[in-house]
Amino acid sequence: MRDPKLPAPATARRSPPGLAGTLRRHSAWLLLVWFALSVCLFLSAAPPAASPLLRPAVLLRNTKPRALATATTAATTSKPPVRIYVYDLPSRFNRDWAAADPRCARHLFAAEVTLHDALLSGPAAARPEDADLFFVPVYVSCNFSTANGFPSLSHARGLLADAVALVRREMPYWNRSAGADHVFVASHDFGACFHPMEDVAIADGIPEFLKRSILLQTFGVHGPHVCQEAEHVVIPPHVPPEVALELPEPEKARRDIFAFFRGKMEVHPKNISGRFYSKKVRTELLKRYGRNSKFYLKRKRYDDYRSEMARSLFCLCPLGWAPWSPRLVESVLLGCVPVIIADDIRLPFPSVLRWQDISLQVAEKDVASLETVLDHVVATNLSVIQKNLWDPVKRKALVFNRPLQEGDATWQVLRELEALLDRSQRRRRSHVGSSRR
Fold first, then answer.
1. Using an 8 Å Cβ cutoff, are 240 and 247 in contact?
2. Residue 343: how many other CB atoms lie within 10 Å
3. Farthest CA pair distance, the chain
4. Which residues are CB-contacts of 287 (< 8 A; sequence separation ≥ 6)?
5. Is there a contact between 314 and 340 (Cβ–Cβ < 8 Å)?
6. Which of 355, 329, 324, 341 is nearest to 288 (CA)?
7. How does this protein lie in the membrane (predicted)?
8. Helix/strand/coil for 46
9. Kind of pairing between the strands at 70-71 and 214-217
10. pTM, whole model, 2 decimals?
11. In 137-197, which ranges are continuous DSSP H helix?
12. Which fold has domain 241-397?
């Protein structure tokens, strides 16, 4: 280092005196700027720490942010977070319905209520203009049933149309995508076709204003169907979370019932409308196994029927008017092997719940050989199926908790939405690339 008391070298003395003075006066500032730039470059190059994905919510009326739930994907993921906002619609679209009937938040269609609550229960918040998706909380299944026991859905299309009109008028986000980034729940028999009878549902179809949106629906089948001709995620029917806790753990339960079913089984399945309930499957079950001592089949309602499921090896899950049933979830929660008798049914969250490892599927036409199928499973691999079924991770994945818990049904919905967005983005990139060629 040069002694500051010595004269400067000749080359330095030849430098223009104005520039040298300026450099000396600003050297401290230059060093500070250099240091700040170095820090910024270092931080931008460093990989981000793994952390939960924050999904915020927002109010419709005044854009004041409301907290939504957090969810995580695998710790190694490098995907950007899915950001979801929940519109705070006037209570006539949701809370008024729930207040009018306490069953609204607990019956088999209540995913529309529990998902809404779960999405509002988390700690994160952000600006609506940053959102990837928007959740529109409209309760169309709260008016649970008419006198004949069917879900009352005659108001659904009008209620949803009013909600969409409000969102389009009050906020700019629907119009920029024609609703393609907006999410609705259709948790009843045939999803967004909004009718409990399949032939009428197919004739009515999905309302035009929802065809570009994303639907969370319990209805799903393999192959084409009018009622799933929109982007959608298959979700489980709602079962109260305490069902998983109110009875002994599955591996500790005494299972003295071979095969169980309690529910509607018509001796003459053709109703006054001329339709056959359950495609005659439940009638066939009653006819063939009603007097078989290995089968515990009951037609009358019993409030404590879940205690019977917890005592059973196999729980029969035949189709009703629609393919799905809350028995699918109840069976898994109670450790009873679901026996699904519903052709072409598409089940929720297949990447987490490998249904072929935790359930049996019997074709509707093969009901006559059901006893033989079940006897074969008992003699070969029942213990393997039970071990898979009794995994707590699988039980949790079917329960809508309030607040949301990592790994539960709401968390799985968010994962499915994230995957859906990834596919959508890849399709858009592919379309842009092909249009440039």
1. no
2. 16
3. 114
4. none
5. no
6. 341
7. Single-pass type II membrane protein
8. coil
9. unpaired
10. 0.80
11. 156-170, 173-177
12. Rossmann fold (3.40.50)
Structure-derived torsion over alpha carbons of residues 380, 358, 277, 154, reported in degrees to the nearest 10: 180
* CA terminus-to-terminus distance, the chain: 62
Q: What is the DSSP string of 69-138?
A: -EE---TT--PPPP-EEE----GGGTHHHHHH-GGGGTSTTTHHHHHHHHHTSSSB---GGG-SEEE---
- How many C-beta atoms surround the C-beta of residue 131 within 10 A? 21
**Could you give the angle at which helices 409-436 and 111-119 cross, rounded to 10 degrees?**
80
The three-state secondary structure class of 202 is: helix
Among 93, 95, 230, smallest CA distance to 170 is for 93
Backbone angles phi, psi at 105, to 5 degrees: -95, 5
Domain with CATH 3.40.50 in the chain: 241-397
pLDDT averaged over 10-residue windows placed end to end, the chain, 437 residues: 36 38 45 44 34 35 33 37 86 93 89 92 64 92 64 88 96 92 95 93 97 97 96 96 85 95 88 84 96 97 93 97 95 97 97 96 98 98 97 95 91 92 64 45
What is the side-by-side strand order in the sheet with 232-234? Answer: 84-86, 133-135, 182-186, 214-217, 232-234
Spell out the residues 6+ positions from residue 220 whose beta carbon is closer than 8 angstroms to its own.
228, 232, 234, 324, 345, 346, 347, 348
| Residue 429 CB contacts under 8 Å (≥ 6 apart), including other chains | none
Give CA–CA dist 371/132, Å, rounded. 50
Q: Nearest to residue 237, comparing CAs of 146, 172, 333, 159?
A: 333
Distance, C-alpha 95 to centroid of its chain: 21
The pLDDT value recorded for residue 249 is 86
Q: Where are the alpha helices (DSSP H) in 219-345?
A: 281-289, 305-309, 327-333
Whether omega for the bond prior to residue 403 falls within 30 degrees of 0, making it cis, is: yes
Q: Which amino acid is at 89?
A: L
